[in-house]
Amino acid sequence: TKTENQMLIIFGASGDLTARKLVPGLFNLFKGKHLPKNFVVLGVSRSDMTDAEFRKKVALESEHLKSQATVKDFGLVEDFANQIFYEDLGSNYDVNYSRLEKRISDLNSKYRTENNYIFYLSTPPSLFEAIAKNLTDQGLNDETSGCKRLIVEKPFGYDLETAKALNKGLQQYFKESQIYRIDHYLGKETVQNLLVTRFANSIFEPLWNRNYIDHVEITNAESGGVGSRGGYYDGSGALRDMFQNHLLQIVSLIVMEPPIDANAQEIRNEKVKALRSLRIMRDEKTLHDHTIRAQYVSSKINGEVVKGYREEDGVDSESTTETYAAIKFYVDNWRWKDVPFYVRTAKRMPTKVTEVVIHFKSPHHQIFKDSGMFNKDNKLIIRIQPDEGILVKFGVKVPGQGFKVERANLDFYYSGLTETHVMEAYERLLLDAMQGDATLYARADEVEAAWEFVNPILEYWKNSEAKVYGYSAGVWGPENADDLIEGYGMWRNPGP
Ligand code: BG6
């Protein structure tokens, strides 16, 4: 697909994301010659900076960029940096944007970006609507000449009500087709590969249902704590920060029916149907039995003392915000009736890993009575990160007399596939938005359906005495989390 000449205008440009993800992503696109001939980045924020200072900060002297560019790229970094500009807004984002409009239109004429503008909102969400309004006041939402797109960062809403209000707010100024809601997990190759695994093969999909699948497990673990983001995180928690968005997106790709086509409309129609079929937990007993929250407490890892969550900077010393959430739920539709899903996400785990485990049922007539442990052990493990790949566990005969069955692995690693550059999530997503492809962006109804499911859990945790368990930093969460998975023994803890 051809990318039109265009300008990317980043709001909140002095923030961490611009230097850490956006500019390095753009640089890789530049290096890979994916950017259009005429392309300009305009950073916008409240800080007072010149173009030169901004270029230094996000490109020329940026550690993040340096780690991507080889020495021989140095000339390239300079060429790339020359396409970057900066404009400050003064003390506030909610001001008259006539000066900004003038700057945009000057750059547009000078660099021939043909009135194609993408606005990337990387500010606190409370500013999204005001920015959309002020852009509209300057006619910058008008697609009569050139495209106008709005990319919004997470978090998209704080709960169901605020997400709905935000959708409504933005849609007053931009059409849904102009709005791109980022979920960077959708930019990950392995997450997209869930669609290919299921729908480009004939060996998995026939088994992909309640007749053959026993239960589904998803683990998202991070070894880091909340770091410098305590202030944000304490008002959020694992359920809002990871589960409502990234993990439910993964769930929707596992649960969805085959779309009739791989375009944005069809795929997102099926995803929203999947999300709407999650059984919403309404009564206290279910909420109590099927959800677990916990916080990491101080412990020693490799001889070093690691702070507990409540001791982290920016965190309330009596906080009940969860850094661990484990949820059991069902999907009420024909395909998934009665198949339990177990999903957990946490910080300060032993390692950083995200994986999906499809546990298949045992053969219904067992003829190898001595096969012991293997019987319940057919698994498809999709490693989202790291060691991206797919693992199938199946039984083989142990050589020798009798029929002893052992477990064997069929293991595929992405790293063994090609030497081609695998795009980083942000790189891929930026390019898609530049090409007007919204397949990997969340639609309004998807985001709302995910909040519908999450909202009662948030309410329950807020208003009830639901216990906040503790777990030592560096272990796989509280022991009680195994109770959730009763009947199956325990969670599968991926190795380091
Ligand atoms: C972000 C969360 O959306 O995703 C962070 O706000 C989390 O808390 C991060 O650390 C995880 O992303 P990844 O790509 O490192 O798994």
Automatic annotation (TrEMBL):
Pfam families on file: G6PD_C, G6PD_N
Residue numbers annotated as active site: 246
Top EC class of this enzyme: oxidoreductase
Catalytic reaction list: D-glucose 6-phosphate + NADP(+) = 6-phospho-D-glucono-1,5-lactone + NADPH + H(+)
Record: residues binding NADP(+): 46, 154
Sorted UniProt keywords: Carbohydrate metabolism, Glucose metabolism, NADP, Oxidoreductase
An annotated GO cellular component: cytosol
BP terms from Gene Ontology: glucose metabolic process; pentose-phosphate shunt, oxidative branch
Keyword Protein transport attributed: no
Documented EC number(s): 1.1.1.49
SUPFAM superfamilies on file: Glyceraldehyde-3-phosphate dehydrogenase-like, C-terminal domain, NAD(P)-binding Rossmann-fold domains
Positions of substrate binding: 184, 188, 222, 241, 347, 352
Pathway annotation: Carbohydrate degradation; pentose phosphate pathway; D-ribulose 5-phosphate from D-glucose 6-phosphate (oxidative stage): step 1/3
InterPro entries: G6P_DH, G6P_DH_AS, G6P_DH_C, G6P_DH_NAD-bd, NAD(P)-bd_dom_sf
The Glucose-6-phosphate dehydrogenase C-terminal domain, residue ranges: 195-489
An example Gene Ontology molecular-function term: glucose-6-phosphate dehydrogenase activity
Entry similarity comment: Belongs to the glucose-6-phosphate dehydrogenase family.
Known function: Catalyzes the oxidation of glucose 6-phosphate to 6-phosphogluconolactone.
Protein name as catalogued: Glucose-6-phosphate 1-dehydrogenase
